[in-house]
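[job 4471] stage=fold_predict status=RUNNING
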Amino acid sequence: MDIAVLDKLRAVVGPANVLGGVDLGPYVVEGRTPEAALFPGSVDEVRAVVEIAAGAGVPVVPWGGGTAAAVGTPASRAGLVLGLSRLSRLLEHEPGDLTVTLEAGMTMAALQSALRARGQWLSLDPPDAERATIGGVIAANASGPRRHLYGTARDLLIGVTVITGEGVVVRGGGKVVKNVAGYDLPKLFVGSHGTLGVIVGVTVKLRPLPDEERLVAIAFDRSKDAGAAARAVMASDLIPSALELVDAEASRPLRLAVGPGGCALIVGFDGVADQVEWQCTEVGRITRPLGGHDVQPLPAATWTRLASAARDAFDSPAAVMRLVVLPAAVVEAMEQGASAARQRGLGSAWSCHAGVGVVTAVLASRGAPPEPGPIASVLQDWRALARAGGGHATLDWAPLAVKAAVPVWDDAGAAGRIMQRLKASLDPHNILNPGRFVAGI
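[job 4471] inference complete, writing structure tokens
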């Protein structure tokens, strides 16, 4: 990077808020070291940084907590990390309207703590809440087990402030839930992985804290029985906030006793205490005739471990893939995917949001580090399974050699061409996470 450009950036954010050299270690992604990391302290400073970078043609990587930094296609060239940790204020909380406006760098843990003090919460539970920021969660569309009842960021975001690739401040949506004028611009940036704009502020809708919340696990000797039980729960009068399936490998980090070939159905309930108590009893009655046994309550801490159960099954995963299939096809995808891994001498761990068909599959070697070839072959089989199940697959994490053989993103089809036009409109200089997302945007 030209030293004159770096001097301009230092003048905007202050020399103390620019990192270089060995201090860039935490921001190295897939072997690529940025040229500098900057931490603006205001929306106007973010705008100025992006404007300077656009003028110089320097790539910009928006950075919240870094929890999803390795997701996507690797950047083709080094650039700037634009850290948002200094933009972490809660700006406006309206308990009566059940809305909150905050800066994008506030962590999920800090936000939930502030809301809890006033009897409310944001019904998103992504992994690693201590690091994950609200802006990063929206940019990655990250969520956890409670998405079964409460949905994802797309369902909760009602307003957004974004800096485009030309350094223009764009505001969309509003501060109230009933806001229906014009295009739903905020949804455009959900799951865009920082390629369309830098999210600097958001307004989201909240919910009152439930009186009680519980999590129960039911063990099954066969995964097919667990799948049938999940369908029975969805067809019943129960209203679970979470409905998860974890195989034997993913059960171990949760300290659940599940035998080989078995599966655990984990169900969450919240609401009025008497209602929660009844539902916990009723789920045992519904699942028992289908082969369920060892119904056990789980400690509250399990909620935070549930979203990463499959990843935590192995110390050193070889790859992580997310499959989206029809809910009725999740068990078949898990069984056939595990078989494909075994045929190549690899282990796997599986967990899924059973009610919405989102499956996390983790591949690992039980011996020496595996070669890229067998890993890529299994991942290609898994992607084929997802397509056969009516969906698609995304490679959430893998070594660079594997990413070179297996595309990170599935074919976007006509939607990819639309995304390319949006990218050209919002980031005409192609500086925001260039090439990271679908269709090469």
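[job 4471] summary: The longest strand covers residues 212-220.
[job 4471] exit 0
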